[in-house]
């Protein structure tokens, strides 16, 4: 409906992204319209010295109380992630990340991989906007009756995907 639902503020060290975009942690504070923190997204430090980094994100609500995780499943060619609940039990994998002419998307599948329970998409805005701005447009879709905590974890997955594939620092460029 176009209403503002959340505001998000990244809380990371000032040099984190400039030193090594892979080897750093970040915290994102998600606030409601009254500016109260309702969700915290925590990406721990990941070392890539001599090993392949595996990315993860912890979703907390209230802050300090983990409600779920987004874990990268290492694959040499494809982006693959798993959604986990607060007990680190798999709820569903992200799979089938695809790139179409103007949309990049990933599906969140049920554990048995027979049905789609959510979708994350990035709307490409054209060469000028992509090249000269840092703004991104993402869409999240999931059933109305999906558990609210899993919806929050899917939201966290959106930010992890953005960080891994669409954020660029001077060192990366």
TrEMBL record:
Keyword Nucleus carried by entry: no
GO cellular component, one term: plasma membrane
Keywords (A to Z) from UniProt: Calcium, Lipoprotein, Membrane, Palmitate, Phosphoprotein, Transmembrane, Transmembrane helix
Pfam families: Scramblase
Domain of life according to the entry: Eukaryota
Keyword Lipoprotein belongs to the record: yes
GO MF term set: phospholipid scramblase activity
Transmembrane segments: none
Entries under InterPro entries matching the protein: Scramblase (IPR005552)
Membrane topology: Single-pass type II membrane protein
Subcellular location: Membrane
Cofactor dependency: Ca(2+)
Function according to Swiss-Prot or TrEMBL: May mediate accelerated ATP-independent bidirectional transbilayer migration of phospholipids upon binding calcium ions that results in a loss of phospholipid asymmetry in the plasma membrane.
Family stated for the protein in its record: Belongs to the phospholipid scramblase family.
Protein name stated in the entry: Phospholipid scramblase
UniProt source species: Cyprinus carpio
């Amino acid at each position: 409906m176009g209403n503002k639902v959340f505001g998000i503020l990244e809380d990371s060290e000032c040099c984190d992204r400039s030193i090594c975009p892979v080897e750093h942690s970040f915290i994102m504070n998600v606030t409601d319209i009254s500016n109260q923190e309702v969700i915290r997204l925590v990406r721990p430090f990941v070392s890539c010295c001599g090993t392949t980094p595996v990315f993860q994100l912890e979703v907390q609500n209230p802050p300090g109380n983990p409600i779920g995780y987004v874990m990268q499943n290492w694959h040499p060619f494809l982006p693959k992630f798993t959604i986990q609940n607060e007990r680190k039990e798999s709820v569903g994998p992200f799979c089938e990340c695809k790139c179409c002419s103007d949309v990049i998307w990933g599906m969140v599948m049920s554990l048995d991989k027979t049905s789609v329970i959510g979708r994350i998409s990035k709307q490409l805005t054209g060469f000028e906007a992509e090249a000269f701005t840092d703004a991104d447009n993402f869409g999240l879709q999931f059933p109305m009756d999906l558990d609210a905590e899993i919806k929050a974890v899917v939201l966290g997955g959106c930010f992890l995907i953005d960080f891994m594939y669409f954020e660029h620092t001077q060192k990366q460029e």
